[in-house]
Amino acid sequence: MVATLKELAAKEDKLSPGHRLCAGCGASVVARMILNASTLPVVVASATGCMEVSTTIFPYTSWRSSFIHNAFENSGATMSGVEAAYRALKRKGKMKDEFNFVAFGGDGGTFDIGLQSLSGAFERGHRMLYVCYDNEAYMNTGIQRSGATPMGAWTTTSEVGKKQAGKIQHRKDLTGIMAAHGGYVAQASPSNWRDLVKKAEKAFAFDGPSFINVLAPCPRGWRFPSEQTIEFARLAVETCYWPLFEVEGGKYKINVKPKTKKPVTEWLKPQGRFKHLFKDVNADKLDELQKFVDDQWDRLLALESACRLD
Amino acid sequence: MTKWNYKGIKAKDLPKGAVIPEGGTAADYETGGWRTKHPVLDKEKCINCLFCYAFCPDSSVIVENGKVVGFDLKHCKGCGICAFECPKDAINMEDE
Ligand code: SF4
Ligand code: SF4
């Protein structure tokens, strides 16, 4: 049973306010929902990134739990070490309490810099949840392209000019990469809070490694007004740019199938980072992005029906 | 925030990394000053769906017994998500 908002609101948030994330930040909505879904106390690690720098400015911390920051590239390894130490202490009878272990990383710390340590933690099968809050660029350092930045997006390192119209390459399919490891893997969006909370609950209950990739719209980096963070998460789902699905035991399941798939331009157009794509010279880029989304969606549908066969 | 007691602790005893010995101290830090607009609730229109609570990035929608009773203006940054997402238009953003 998924917790209701009334039940969640009756508990104190595990992430306290007073953090210095920007007004309207999608990442803190994601962290709140995930952590509040835990019925046990949590132990949290975070890779370097927006969330880490703004929640732990000495002598303040927003985490109403144990929290550890180590480096950009190793929150997966750090949390797996914490979990292994916990198991050893428990085995020796030095510890009795139960915890959920959660690591957060942005797309920079997960798609790119921390991928090896996350992959190792998954392969070793630690009982931990890794959450990627994907805001599609290195936002903390001032909007630089990452492996998660969509093609065509402006960032300060994928400029717009005569020779180039934003990022040249497509984003990588991190959720697919993680699904290839096994464990419990899901993709979620804060707009669909019930789906997100359910996935977090499943991950916490799973006896092994789990990974949730959550879209975290960024008003500053995507160039949209701060009140529309959830709306952009919603549009990403409705256009099938950001499909909501989960992979359990190698089986794909799509959680939300929009009745009418909106054109991806509805998600792109209001964002300042894609403004240049709506000039005539870049019409081919819009077609290419639509094709990317269509191919990704068709592939998911195929994977889902292939998994139903047995 | 509690006053942390460092009495008798020598420099060499201090941990190598920064350690904050209690959780959630950021709640003492005010981010309300960032605001240019603040949310105002119209209780007549509100149906207590709690979407505003779910979507607030700053845990600033105050819920008591399943009902929205107001906003934590010490922390609310005035992003306007609560007002934008409210299905009943029960929240208005007003100038500071
Ligand atoms: S979103 Fe609107 S209707 Fe729902 S609880 Fe908040 S103020 Fe009330
Ligand atoms: S304006 Fe933003 S920070 Fe303030 S209560 Fe509404 S959602 Fe929360």
Structure description:
The complex is a heterodimer of chains A (310) and B (96). Chain A is globular and about 70 Å long. In chain A, helix 4 runs parallel beside helix 6. Chain A has one domain (5-309): Thiamin diphosphate (ThDP)-binding fold, Pyr/PP domains (Rossmann fold, 3-Layer(aba) Sandwich). Helix content of chain A is 38%, strand content 13%. Chain A is built from twelve helices and eight strands. The mean pLDDT of chain A is 96. Chain A has an eight-stranded mixed β-sheet, sandwiched between helices. With 310 residues, chain A is an alpha/beta fold. Chain B is α+β, with helices and mostly antiparallel strands. Chain B has a domain at 30-95: Alpha-Beta Plaits, CATH 3.30.70.20. Chain B is 10% helix and 20% strand. In chain B, the strands form two sheets. Chain B has a two-stranded antiparallel sheet. A two-stranded antiparallel ribbon of chain B has the order 2-3. In chain B, strand 2 and strand 3 (67-71) form a beta hairpin. The mean pLDDT of chain B is 93. The interface between A and B is large, with 46 and 39 residues. The complex binds iron/sulfur cluster (2 copies).
Helix proportion of residues of chain B, in percent? 10-25%
User: Any idea what the CATH architecture of chain A is?
Assistant: 3-Layer(aba) Sandwich
In whole angstroms, the N-to-C terminal distance of chain A is 27 Å
The CATH class of chain A is identified as Alpha Beta
CATH fold label of the domain at 30-95 in chain B? Alpha-Beta Plaits
In quaternary terms, these chains amount to heterodimer
Total domain modules of chain A: 1
Would you tell me the overall average pLDDT of chain B?
93
Q: Which radius of gyration of chain A do the C-alpha atoms yield? A: 19 Å
Number of helices of chain A: 12
